Amino acid sequence: DFTLTDHLVNAGQFTVVTAGVTTLYSLKFFIQRWKSSLVLEQELKQAVLKAEFESLKAQVNPHFLFNSLNILSALIPEDPRNAVTMVERMSKVFRYNLQNTEKATVELGEELKIVESYLFIHKMRFADNLRYAIAVPTGELEKQVVNQGLLTLVENALKHNECSREYPLTVRIEAAEGWVVVTNTLQRKNRLQTDSTGIGLKNLRHRYALLTDREVTVEETEGEF
Fold first, then answer.
1. Among 13, 79, 93, 181, which residue's CB has the most CB atoms within a 10 Å radius?
2. Residue-wise pLDDT tens digits, 61-80
C-alpha cells in the first residue's frame, strides 16, 4: 500500500530525475551550438584575414613593377644591352610572383633566389657602387617567410639610399635564431628623389601581423638601417 507521502516522494524523485535528464540534454545541445558558433566565427575570421592579406599582397606587385620600370627607364639610355638583360631578369621575377600568387609564405631559399636576381639587375646598373652579400646557412633555407617580404626590404634599401661612387651602397642578408636580417648602409636620398608611395614596410608589417604575433623589428643606427 502506498500512502500519499509515498506518492509525493515518488513524484518528487521522478520530477528531479526528469529535470536532470532534460538539463543534461539541454546542456549538451547548448554546448554543441556554442562549439558550432565558435567554428563559424573562426571560419569567418579566417576568411576576413585571408581577404585582407590578399589585398595587401596585391599592393606589392604594382609597387615592385613601378620601381622596376623606373630603373629600366634610367638604364635604357645608359646601357641598352644591359637593359635587354634586365628585362629578361624582370620577367623571371614576375614569373616567380605569378607562380606563388596563392601562397602567403614561401621557403626562404626560394625568396633568396629571386632577391639575388633582383640585386643582380641593379648590379648591372650601379656596378661597383652596389655591393651585396647573402650569408644564410643551408639549414635555414626551408623555413618560411612572407611571400616577397625580403624582396620588399631589398627594394626599399635600393630605392631610398644613395648608391654612387662617393656613397657605395652595401646590402647584407643573414639568417640566424629564427630571424632573417636585411641590413643596408644608411645614406638616404633626398625625399623628392625617392618618389615614395609609403607602401613597402607598412605593408610588410601588416602582412606579418596577420600571420604571427612576432613583429617586424626595425633598427636604425647612425650608419646602418
1. 93
2. 566 667 677 777 877 887 78
Radius of gyration from C-alpha coordinates of the chain: 29
Instruction: Retrieve residue 44's grid coordinates.
Output: 569567418
| Cα distance between residue 4 and residue 87, in whole Å | 100
Using a 10 angstrom Cβ sphere, with 0-12 exposed, 13-18 middle and 19 or more buried, the burial of residue 168 is middle
- Euclidean distance between the first and the last CA atom of the chain, given in angstroms as a whole number: 95
CB 186 within 8 A of CB 220: yes
Q: Please give the grid coordinates belonging to residue 222.
A: 647612425
pLDDT the model gives residue 217? 92
DSSP conformation class of 1: -
Would you list the DSSP string of 97-135? HHHTTT-SEEEHHHHHHHHHHHHHHHHHHHGGGEEEEEE
The CA distance from 102 to 118, in Å, is 21
C-alpha span between 187 and 161 (Å, rounded): 5
Segment 152-175 shows an average pLDDT of 92
**pLDDT score, position 61:** 58
- 40, amino acid identity: L
Cβ neighbours around 54 below 10 Å, total: 12
Measured in residues, the chain has a length of 225
String of DSSP letters for 181-206: EEEEB--BPPHHHH---S-HHHHHHH
Give the per-residue pLDDT at 26: 79
